[in-house]
Amino acid sequence: MIEEKKFNNSNKRPRILIAPLDWGLGHATRCIPIIYELINQQCEVIIIADKNNYFLLKTEFPEAVFLRYKGYEIRFSRSKRFFFLTIFFQLPKILLSIFKERKWIKKIVNEYSIDSVISDNRFGMYSKIIPSIYITHQLLIKTGNIFTDYIAQKIHYYFINKYTTCWVPDSRKNGLAGALSHPDILPPNVIYLGPLSRFFLIDNNETIYEVLISISGPEPQRTIFENKILMQLKTSQKKVLLIRGLPSEKKVLKSFNSVRIENHLPAKELNVLMQQSRIIISRSGYTTVMDLATLRKKAILIPTPGQTEQEYLAKYLFQKQYFFSMEQKDFFIEDALKKVNSFDFKPFENTNDYKRPIQEFVLSLKSANFASSKT
Hints:
Helix content is 36%, strand content 15%. By secondary structure, it is an alpha/beta fold. Strands 3-2-1-4-5-6-7 form a 7-stranded parallel beta sheet, with helices on one face. α3 links the parallel β2 and β3. The radius of gyration is 21 Å and the shape is globular.
């Protein structure tokens, strides 16, 4: 369903589609700095999103044009043991979704005179007649098995090679994603952006909250983790901010003790509050990791059970001493906060150079006669 009316690109500004995956909120949130930079470069941005991604991005960009189009809507297992098996049985559904979005994007590109498409991990959101960018940090997909790792990478590279360019949101060397973004063999179209974050450092921050807890990710594990947290906080006297990661939720849980509860916060407000918190507790999703590194915050990472990517990142970043980590089954807030006090955190040097490749990309669109080149 199209929310906004079509418009003519009479001022000849590049018109760019942004399409993030609907696997949690991370793919949408890491598109935020890209969208801001595209707007700064005088591009017209059209955002493809639905459900939570739509509500999150609509909050950040209320004046933007949105096309409502559903995501892959993958179901996840409550059990870590059956995580990948549950996804495996949904492969026919995922492939059908990719086929449908291929047909849909072809129609939209022609109908809206689109000049480029930027897809964050959506396999079918590319066009053969205009520059198409694919964003991923998982050039190596961790499945828990070497053989299936190889198969998953081959499939992923097949789709990556359908795109003009693959943007990897990590540093070329000493990256945050470790082996995930630095496999032995790279696709030929890879450009390293550097870490992406919607956040920035601010000065003169006083500490307001002892702990900020950010709960995110797909269901049912989001709710399982939230319930565990809420149960433990009932006896805590610490000043805590709990953010549930539910931008479309209308019902707000009642705050208690010294615990403030929010369903969701806009990026600007969250940026300040994270820096006004002594310690962050969150999932080890890669977008969250990039945000934490940008803000140089001490954090406890709790990987989503069964998500081998998050489990790998939590272990890798713990070994690098960038962040502390624990498994969800072993997590107790008071115990974790005691342990983190004696943890020797190492700073991550973030160059934040993602704007340069985006600027070069926009310049290439403007220098080509994009308005008259499409057929």
